[in-house]
């Protein structure tokens, strides 16, 4: 049944309406107040998928428009947008004269990190309206889950709390993420923990996702995709907004937002407060999230100055162990976290097995128009994070490694003639860090040239330490005994230059060069009491070139080649076996070929990509000298695929957005390792690990098929019904392509109804109800497995992450 559904989706993507209508051509120019042509201005025909970008003479042509009434808009960065109403009955000329904006546009802040219409790469823009439609309190990965090639997962099963995503099979550690052009990835782990920024979606104006290497930007390497978020932009009118959402699993989101509008045509202030609570789908996987966003801005015709403060706190019960496969069939909500045996011999769960973290972001953003050709952008940023997770350690439980007091730097406890070497205890693992730096860029735009020169410099200073806060047998240990402490100091600097040159009316050429320097210094003692002192230096050169060819306003294509290098993260270094080579940096060669087409009723895009990896770090089962899993460089691996996107308007009141990714993701050759527990019984005759060489195996968590569909139907004005569907193909849990270790394919459907109206007292009242997983699909989105041999028999420990069954959310928003 699922195969039939996905086949229907594929066939639908290849269908484009071919109805015959009386058609005409719209031509014209876009110029400034002095009569000079504006090159690269956007001209867009509303209620269609057609538009054009002005050429070297400021001219545009839009062919094959069905005759009838239209609203046509022209826009250009730094100029006021203009709209004209026309009734198209024959070939028509429509000229636009755009006035210089009286205040500088917010778009210039993130212009250096964004792809534009003629950029030779695959990207998706997500608007404020689209974000608002999906913002039910879930984290950003679930708000953006319908974008191409994306797979999301939630530890608690609800999309609230610890969440993650992959794009083209690439995990978050390899995806560059920025907010207002400022790095968001953790400098050491390369990850982004969305739970630390609860309800961020309520402060985000738009998002651009670039797949592949993308353009040069600040922060971590883009090793499969990049994502740039922009927060509140200018709202000229004052407002106040109050919303509350309720749903299954005692989920409750409340939100207040206020803004002054433009004061004296110069100043604005915005504030957003949010709180989110949920019990979670998984047992005890509750969350308590609070956040705020404050923005103050100064606008003039030449300058823009913004101060942003983003703060979040989270307390979540740990759900990251997953559900063992042996229990999954009978209890999909089972959570082993905090499990221990009390003094009566009963199995119980520790009630504070929680993760606790606070994170504050401070951003000072400045843009200045030096003259008609030059714009300067700069930002200063500082992030302070601190927090811990708490665990009850019972040596009788199989999940935990250390069973002796020596492993915590504690003395054995002597009671009478008895020596006690192990016992229950509660520990906290802490991270306290500072991240600060600056970014800047110059943008030159005139005639055929659109160029950027920019870069950034950042420093990360992290303190890692652990405390034993309680022990059943305390002996001579002190309260809050600290058993390890380490530091991480990382400097990251980059400079880039990129330019698009419009060589002819049809051909644009893009070049993008980045030089990046990293120094990572790690000192101190790891939690397993190993000395982890080490220093690593890298200098990377990341070139990118591409061409964009526009046949006409209907058909265009691009080709690009990009190279990216990525340094290992902290875990790769500290978990590495000191008797083996140091993990090497990874290199990606990314080839992209794309095609776009549009008509009055539909638009479509197809991108073929081949991502060739050199020395990609993957899990092979190999362990270090204390038994922890390590990442190993494999020489040859690749991701190759075809992404198809289409938007179709079959009826005036209906829109269908659909996307499909078909891919092959392979490791050409690597050595797999599996632990042998019999070694501890007979170390002289048993190997420590078994190994075998495997060839042409699938990369883990890289489904060959990803498809998404969103059907929007406007029943009456302001009453919309959305049907959202997502299909994810089979995923292997490890890199062996074993059918015994996989996630089954799943097809999930959500239904939402939204209605808004006005009253004499309230500018807008918005109501919604959202039904998730309406067909009650049972599915898992992530998993882990640990395999071992004992006595010649293979066994394993594992954990799967089930997602919610059918559940509901509803809410109301009042905007004044």
General description of the model:
The protein is mostly beta strands. The chain folds into two domains: 1-101, Sandwich (Immunoglobulin-like); 239-815, Maltoporin, Chain A. The protein is 4% helix and 58% strand. It has five helices and 46 strands. The strands form eight sheets. The protein has a 22-stranded antiparallel barrel. A five-stranded mixed beta sheet has the order 9-14-15-12-13. The chain starts with a helix and ends with a strand. Residues 4-20 have low confidence and may be disordered.
Please sum up the structure shown.
The protein is mainly β and 816 residues long. The chain has five helices and 46 strands. The longest helix has 12 residues, at 2-13.
Termini separation comes to 48 Å
How many separate helices? 5
The strand count comes to 46
Low-confidence stretches: 4-20
CATH class of the largest domain: Mainly Beta
What does the secondary structure layout of this molecule look like, with pairings?
Blueprint: H1 2-13, E1 23-31, E2 42-45, E3 51-53, E4 59-66, E5 68-75, E6 82-88, E7 92-93, E8 96-97, E9 122-126, H2 128-134, H3 140-143, E10 150-154, E11 163-167, E12 175-179, E13 182-183, E14 204-212, E15 224-231, E16 239-247, E17 251-259, E18 267-278, E19 287-299, E20 303-317, H4 325-328, E21 339-341, E22 347-349, E23 354-369, E24 374-393, E25 413-415, E26 418-420, E27 425-446, E28 449-471, E29 481-502, E30 507-524, E31 534-550, E32 555-566, H5 570-574, E33 586-598, E34 602-623, E35 629-651, E36 654-676, E37 689-698, E38 705-716, E39 719-728, E40 731-732, E41 742-743, E42 746-757, E43 764-772, E44 780-790, E45 793-802, E46 807-815
């Amino acid at each position: 049944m699922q195969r039939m559904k996905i086949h229907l989706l594929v066939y639908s993507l290849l269908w484009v309406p071919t109805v015959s209508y009386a058609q005409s051509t719209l031509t014209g120019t876009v110029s400034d107040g002095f009569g000079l042509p504006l090159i690269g201005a956007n001209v867009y025909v509303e209620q269609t998928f057609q538009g054009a970008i002005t050429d070297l003479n400021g001219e545009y042509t839009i062919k094959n428009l069905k005759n009838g009434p239209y609203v046509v808009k022209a826009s250009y960065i730094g100029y006021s947008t203009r709209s004209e109403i026309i009734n198209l009955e024959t070939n028509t000329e429509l000229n636009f004269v755009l006035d210089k904006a009286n205040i500088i546009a917010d778009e210039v802040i993130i212009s250096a990190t964004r792809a534009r219409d003629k950029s030779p790469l695959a990207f998706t823009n997500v608007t404020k309206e689209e974000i608002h439609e999906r913002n039910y309190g879930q984290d950003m990965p679930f708000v953006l889950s319908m974008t191409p090639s994306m797979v999301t997962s939630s530890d608690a099963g609800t999309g609230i709390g610890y969440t993650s995503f992959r794009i083209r099979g690439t995990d978050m550690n390899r995806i560059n993420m920025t907010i207002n052009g400022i790095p968001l990835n953790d400098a050491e782990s390369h990850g982004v923990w969305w739970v630390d920024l609860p309800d961020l979606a309520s402060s985000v104006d738009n998002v651009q996702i670039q797949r592949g290497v993308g353009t040069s930007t600040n922060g971590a390497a883009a090793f499969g995709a990049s994502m740039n978020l922009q927060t509140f932009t200018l709202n000229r009118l004052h407002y106040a907004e109050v919303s509350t959402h309720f749903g299954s699993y005692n989920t409750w989101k409340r939100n207040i937002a206020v803004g002054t509008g433009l004061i004296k045509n110069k100043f604005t202030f915005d504030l957003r407060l949010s709180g989110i609570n949920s019990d979670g789908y998984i047992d005890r996987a509750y969350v308590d999230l609070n956040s705020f966003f404050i923005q103050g801005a100064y606008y003039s015709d030449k300058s823009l100055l913004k101060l942003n403060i983003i703060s979040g706190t989270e307390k979540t019960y740990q759900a990251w162990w997953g559900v063992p496969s042996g229990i999954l069939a009978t209890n999909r909500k089972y959570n082993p976290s905090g499990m221990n045996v009390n003094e009566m011999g009963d199995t119980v769960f520790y009630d504070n097995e929680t993760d606790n973290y606070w994170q504050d972001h401070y951003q000072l953003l400045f843009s200045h128009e030096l003259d008609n050709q030059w714009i300067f952008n700069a930002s200063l940023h500082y992030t302070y994070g601190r927090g811990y997770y708490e665990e009850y350690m019972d040596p009788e439980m199989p999940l935990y490694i250390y069973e002796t007091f020596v492993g915590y730097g504690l003395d054995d406890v002597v009671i009478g003639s008895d020596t006690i070497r192990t016992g229950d205890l509660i520990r906290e693992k802490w991270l306290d860090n500072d991240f600060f730096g600056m970014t800047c860029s110059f943008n030159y735009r005139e005639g055929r040239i659109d160029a950027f020169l920019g870069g950034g410099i950042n420093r990360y200073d992290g303190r890692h330490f652990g405390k034993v806060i309680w022990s059943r047998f305390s002996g001579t240990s002190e309260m809050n005994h600290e058993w390890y402490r380490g530091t991480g100091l990382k400097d990251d600097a980059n400079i880039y230059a990129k330019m698009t040159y419009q060589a002819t009316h049809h051909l644009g050429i893009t070049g993008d060069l980045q030089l990046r320097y990293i120094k990572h210094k790690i000192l101190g003692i790891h939690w397993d009491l190993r000395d982890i002192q080490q220093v690593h230096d890298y200098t990377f050169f990341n070139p990118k070139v591409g061409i964009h060819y526009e046949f006409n306003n209907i058909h265009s294509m691009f080709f690009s080649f990009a190279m990216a290098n990525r340094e290992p993260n902290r875990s790769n270094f500290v978990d590495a076996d000191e008797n083996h080579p140091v993990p090497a940096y990874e290199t990606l060669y990314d080839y992209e070929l794309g095609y776009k087409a549009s008509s009055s009723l539909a638009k479509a895009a197809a991108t073929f990509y081949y991502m060739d990896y050199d020395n990609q770090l993957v899990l092979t089962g190999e362990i270090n000298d204390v038994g922890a899993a390590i990442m190993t460089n494999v020489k040859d691996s690749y991701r190759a695929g075809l992404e198809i996107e289409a938007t179709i308007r079959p009826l005036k009141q209906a829109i269908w957005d659909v996307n499909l990714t078909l891919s092959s993701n392979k490791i050409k050759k690597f050595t797999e390792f599996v632990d042998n527990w019999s070694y501890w019984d007979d170390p002289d005759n048993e190997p420590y690990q078994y190994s075998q060489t495997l060839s042409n195996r699938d990369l883990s968590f890289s489904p060959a098929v990803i498809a998404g569909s969103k059907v929007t139907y406007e029943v009456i004005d302001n009453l919309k019904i959305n049907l959202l569907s997502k299909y994810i193909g089979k995923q292997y849990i490890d890199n062996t392509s074993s059918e015994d270790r996989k996630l089954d394919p799943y097809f999930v459907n959500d239904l939402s109804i939204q209605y808004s109206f006005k009253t004499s007292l309230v500018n807008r009242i918005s109501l919604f109800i959202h039904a998730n997983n309406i067909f009650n699909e049972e599915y898992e989105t992530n998993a882990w497995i640990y395999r071992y041999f004992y006595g010649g028999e293979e066994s394993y420990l594992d954990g799967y992450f089930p997602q919610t069954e059918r559940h509901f959310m509803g809410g109301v928003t009042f905007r004044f």
